[in-house]
User: Fold this.
Amino acid sequence: MSSKLRILVPVKRVIDAAIKPRINKTQTGVETKGVKFSINPFCDIALEESIRIREGAKDLVEAIHAVSIGPTKAQDVLRVALAKGADTSTLIDVGEEEVEPLNVAKLLQKVVEKENSNLVILGKQAIDDDSNQTGQMLAGLLNWPQATNASKVEIEGDSVTVTREVDGGSDTLRAKLPLVITTDLRLNEPRYASLPNVMKAKKKPLEKLKASDFGIDIVKRLETLKVDEPPVRAAGIKVETVDELISKLKELKAI
Ligand code: AMP
Assistant:
């Protein structure tokens, strides 16, 4: 495999992180009508990291390819990725169908093969389903090493050092390419796309394919039975003294 980097960045279109989602009337999911969608924040971090790797060592990076699996409108997040610095992109148009992480990973495996990628940088999770599964499943399918929840990535030749955030400290790993990395929140702060780059991105390649082009059946194995709002928190009370506080806590069996 070439030691030049051919980076694949999967980007998911999700309800904008600033919006408080509402449950739909049928209680089968969240309301998507009239709601703003954006690039998943962890995917934005993955994209930013791939651009910074190129900026740090221009000759090292041969290609940055963005891919999104979603409705036709997911083109928007690919255009953002192209405006920020991806060279080329693929939309796998699945209509309004929700694709489970295993099927996303199977499709990404095909894109890795097609693009001859040797580094995949994904978000650690998509904020809509919070699955935190796709990167791990993709590494399993490819039989590649994986470094999840990265807070620092350093590349030297075909050797990659990844610092991961773990409870109470950090964990530093080294692996050879090819590799799957998933990004944590503190890895970097993504840039905004400049207007000239947004205009230029309109001319960059965006290939449109279907899951069937890869021979992958995106049939669901999970059925959503019901989606509920979290219980409303009961109002608190004010106590006048520490003794009263202690007796209340005892009453609630909190101490
Ligand atoms: P998840 O396992 O669903 O929490 O997603 C983790 C990461 O996998 C995301 O941050 C994306 O990088 C990638 N991913 C998941 N679903 C998609 C999708 N439909 N299209 C592109 N990338 C995806």
In short: The chain is about 25% helix and 25% strand. The radius of gyration is 21 Å. Residues 38 and 76 are 8 Å apart (CA to CA). The pocket of adenosine monophosphate is lined by residues 10-12, 40, 42-43, 46, 68-70, 99, 101, 104, 122-123, 125-126, 129, 131-135 (CB under 6 Å).
